[in-house]
Amino acid sequence: MDNTILKPKNDVPTRIAQRTLAKRGAGYASEVRCLLDAALEVMRQGGTASRPRVADIVAAAGLSNDAFYRHFPSKDALVAALLEDGAERLASYVAHQMDKEPAPARKVRRWVEGVLSQTREEIAATTLAVLWNGGSIGESFGSGRHSATAPLAALLHEPFAQLGSAHPELDASLAAHATVGKISDYLWHRATPSPAEIDHITDFCLRAITGRA
Fold first, then answer.
1. In the predicted model, what is the mean pLDDT of residues 98-125?
2. By CB count within 10 A, which of 12, 30, 54, 55 is most buried?
3. Per-residue pLDDT tens for 154-179?
4. Percent of the chain beyond pLDDT 70?
5. Rg (CA), the chain
6. Cβ(192)–Cβ(186) below 8 Å
7. Do 92 and 194 fall within a single domain?
8. Is there a single domain that holds both residue 115 and residue 160?
């Protein structure tokens, strides 16, 4: 006779372990947020004159080296995460602006305006510092740079399809890379796009899809 006691699938040890992991996960998410915010501030202060060290970021976050390396294998990994986090925050803002317009062409205009908002004086220096630090990322983090434009490109899929694009995802990716690349030009020249330039960039995106402005 088999005297083995069958344990319930969700027994007490398992439930306690799950609660512990849930609490630890929330704490770890807070640590990561703290590290990202600290890195952003340190980069803003350093501008394009110096790249921060892990020690600088950890000190600004009030955390330990162990906390840093628990989440990031290197500073490059943190910078890649910072680029992705910034892109997702920007995408959320741009999506909100696009939702104000029903027409797809007007949505594209809102998209261009929203993306180029990174050149505004109050945030331009921080944006430039992050992009400059991102330029030091090694080849192994090339996909991280792509993920920085992916959330922005995704916002154009639907309006591009409505405007007649046969390849809305590819066209959106091209538009996102071109516009984000143009941001670098404005930032390095300490300039912001004029309304006429915003019109021109919008028309460029629309011509690529419809053949007309």
1. 95
2. 54
3. 999 999 999 999 999 999 999 999 99
4. 80
5. 22
6. yes
7. yes
8. yes
Residue type at position 84: E
CB neighbours of residue 167 within 10 Å: 12
Phi and psi angles of residue 103, each rounded to the nearest 5 degrees, phi first:
-85, 135
C-beta atoms surrounding 156 within 10 Å: 29
What does the DSSP assignment read for the chain? ---PPPPPTT-HHHHHHHHHHHHHHHHHHHHHHHHHHHHHHHHHHHTTT-PPPHHHHHHHHT--HHHHHHH-SSHHHHHHHHHHHHHHHHHHHHHHHHTT--SHHHHHHHHHHHHHGGGSHHHHHHHHHHHHHHTT--GGGHHHHHHHHHHHHHTTHHHHHHTT-SSHHHHHHHHHHHHHHHHHHHHHTT----HHHHHHHHHHHHHHHHS--
135 and 44 co-located in one domain: no
Report the distance separating Cα 174 and Cα 171, nearest Å.
Answer: 5
Q: What confidence tens digit (pLDDT) does each residue in 46-80 have?
A: 999 989 999 999 999 999 999 999 999 999 999 98
Separation CA 158–CA 107 (nearest Å): 10
pTM confidence score:
0.78
Structural domain count of the chain: 2
Amino acid letter, residue 114: G
End-to-end CA distance of the chain: 82
Q: At what angle do helices 121-134 and 168-188 cross, to 10 degrees?
A: 110
Q: Compute the distance between CA of residue 77 and CA of residue 79 in angstroms, rounded to an integer.
A: 5
